[in-house]
Amino acid sequence: MDRKLKALIIGSTGGIGRELVKELLQSNQWGEVHVLVRRELEAWKNLSQEQKNKLVIHKVDGLEILRDQTKLPSFQGLSAVFCTLGAEQKDGKENFIKVDKEFPLLTADLAIKNNIPQYHIVTSQMSDKSSMFLYLKVKGEVENELSQKGFQYLGIYRPGLLLQREQPRLIERFFSYVPFIKKVDVQNIAVAMRLQSENYIESSHNSTQYFENDDIIKISNQKI
């Protein structure tokens, strides 16, 4: 029997987020897909009527609203939160930490406040809170702090180089041709996140799972 699960996606207009929105809307398991966005994507205007009915768009001036969650609607009754945020370091250290650490942790607080049992986040391969590299250090710090929040289920996805974005970053275009670097399509990440959420939606124990690049590909290949 089809379930009608409900999700909130933070980062829904990014490369992975766009694919995740499509993946959940196409699944009969999900009845509502909430997104917090500045603007509605053109692609969403071309959805089928059934998918439009499932997509709940909350327009906000920016994710700074997460700092004052009294301005947000109630998300009680949702099944899972998915965080696919990611900034480029070229935009500055302060902005990178805000997008890749502060906002994901505030989103976790929002989930806990609304009794949402699952939290799924995309970080990076080689994330390490002790790393000398800012990017990997911040990703590792987020993973560590999230693991202490007490979610019934926490899924942490550590992909390698991202492929098949609509707007690939320069480094992704360059290294996509290097054979020994681990890579994964953004669609694979979206599929893996959906499948893991559905598989553990009835979990009654606090558990954290980490998925490396090869794990993500393996799980996504189980799509039915």
Short description:
The protein is an alpha/beta fold and 224 residues long. It contains seven helices and nine strands, in the order E-H-E-H-E-E-H-E-H-E-E-H-E-H-E-H. The protein has helices at 15-26, 49-54, 93-113, 134-146, 170-175, 186-199, 213-220; strands spanning 5-10, 30-37, 55-59, 80-83, 118-122, 153-158, 161-163, 183-185, 207-212.
Task: Walk me through the structure.
It is a single chain. The chain has 224 residues and is of the alpha/beta class. It has one domain (5-220): 3-Layer(aba) Sandwich (Rossmann fold), CATH 3.40.50.720. It has helices at 15-26, 49-54, 93-113, 134-146, 170-175, 186-199, 213-220, and strands at 5-10, 30-37, 55-59, 80-83, 118-122, 153-158, 161-163, 183-185, 207-212. A seven-stranded parallel sheet has the order 3-2-1-4-5-6-9, with helices on both faces. The protein has a two-stranded parallel sheet with strand order 7-8. α1 crosses α6 (186-199), α3 packs parallel to α4 and α6 (186-199) crosses α7. The radius of gyration is 17 Å and the shape is globular. The two termini are 15 Å apart. Residues 169-179 have low confidence and may be disordered.
| Percentage of residues in DSSP E strands | 15-25%
CATH superfamily: NAD(P)-binding Rossmann-like Domain
Going by CATH, the architecture would be: 3-Layer(aba) Sandwich
Number of helical elements? 7
- The number of strands is 9
CATH fold-level topology: Rossmann fold
Order of helices and strands: EHEHEEHEHEEHEHEH
Q: Report how far the terminal alpha carbons are from each other.
A: 15 Å
The CATH first-level class comes to Alpha Beta
For the biggest sheet, the summary is: 7 strands, parallel
The whole-number mean of residue pLDDT values reads 90
Strand order of the largest sheet: 3-2-1-4-5-6-9
